[in-house]
Write a structure and sequence with these properties.
This protein has about 280 residues and is α/β, with parallel strands linked by helices. The protein folds into 2 domains: about 100 residues, D-Maltodextrin-Binding Protein, domain 2, CATH 3.40.190; about 110 residues, D-Maltodextrin-Binding Protein, domain 2, CATH 3.40.190. The strands form 2 sheets. Strands 2-1-3-10-4 form a 5-stranded mixed β-sheet, with helices on both faces. The longest helix has 21 residues. The radius of gyration is 28 Å and the shape is elongated.
Length: about 280
């Protein structure tokens, strides 16, 4: 058996090495506390939370949210306390997303393209304060419709809006106002109706007034003659046709020639909701 000699190296740590290791560990723990204020947890068998408040607008493509609630799919996948809450308008949806559930708002929503980008950049929020968003899913493609008031039915307005321009010019010259309705400034309804009007020579900024009308209020506003034309997703165009209040002029996929994200095409959540481990991987 070999006896240790003075030349055998020592295996212990020096005082300097211990101090360096301690300092490194303290820095790591401080960084962890900064980045994970609610604590870091190992992924379990199900979601880390059991509840969420999700908003929707009364449109056909909101179906996945309220059908999932009615069929118990949230509970099946470990979130029995999810609430699906109807919102009055896209502006209300935006405001409630910024508030979050802790501020009596919502955590996520069925939402209009491109609102998550506008909210994240602060373009449509109070004081232009950015509220980062996560897009979880696209719910639908195409399906937006443009309709004109019943008084223009004889024109058989379609993709070509040139005949529509002639009538609108006469109406404007008589001193009457002409209005085009959409659901949110900068949203896809706004973009499509502007594109449709401009293609026939109607300047959407000068020749016609653009107004905001929430989707569920389109029928009521058309009944009282608020607007001459509008762009919205189903089921409101067909409702207006059913009540003989309007004529469908075009679908967005028809006059654009390519598939596009529908008016309410995604489910999005606020980054604050995701930051506390509310997204299960």
């Amino acid at each position: 058996m070999t006896k240790p000699t003075d030349q055998t190296p020592r295996r212990g740590l020096s005082r300097r090495q211990i101090l360096k290791a301690t300092a490194g560990t303290a820095a790591l723990l401080a960084a962890a506390r900064l980045n994970f204020p609610a604590g870091a947890f190992a992924q379990g068998a199900g979601p880390e939370v059991k509840t969420a408040k999700l908003g929707f607008i009364a449109l056909s493509d909101a179906g996945p949210l309220f059908v999932a609630k009615d069929k118990g799919l949230f509970a099946k996948h470990g979130m029995p306390d999810v609430e699906v809450q109807k919102q009055a308008s896209w502006g209300t949806t935006r405001d409630n997303l910024v508030l979050g559930s802790e501020g009596n708002g919502i955590d996520g929503a069925h939402i209009l393209t491109p609102m998550p980008y506008l909210i994240s950049s602060g373009k449509v929020t109070q004081n232009n304060q950015p509220t980062p968003m996560y897009i979880l899913a696209r719910l639908n493609l195409n399906g937006q419709c443009i309709s004109v008031a019943k008084e223009y039915s004889d024109l058989k307005v379609g993709v070509d809006t040139a005949p529509f321009k002639v009538v609108l010019d006469k109406k404007k010259a008589s001193g009457k106002s002409i209005k085009a309705a959409m659901t949110f400034p900068g949203g896809t309804h706004d973009l499509w109706i502007r594109y449709w009007l401009a293609a026939g020579g109607i300047d959407p900024d000068k020749d016609i007034e653009t107004i905001v009308v929430p989707p569920p209020q389109m029928v009521a506003n058309m009944k009282v003659g608020t607007m001459d034309c509008f762009c919205v997703c189903e089921p409101w165009n067909l409702q207006l046709i059913h009540w003989r209040l309007a004529q469908m002029a075009a679908t967005s996929s028809r006059f654009s020639g390519f598939s596009h994200h529908c008016c309410a095409s995604m489910t999005a959540i606020s980054s604050a909701f995701a930051a506390f481990g509310y997204l299960s991987t």
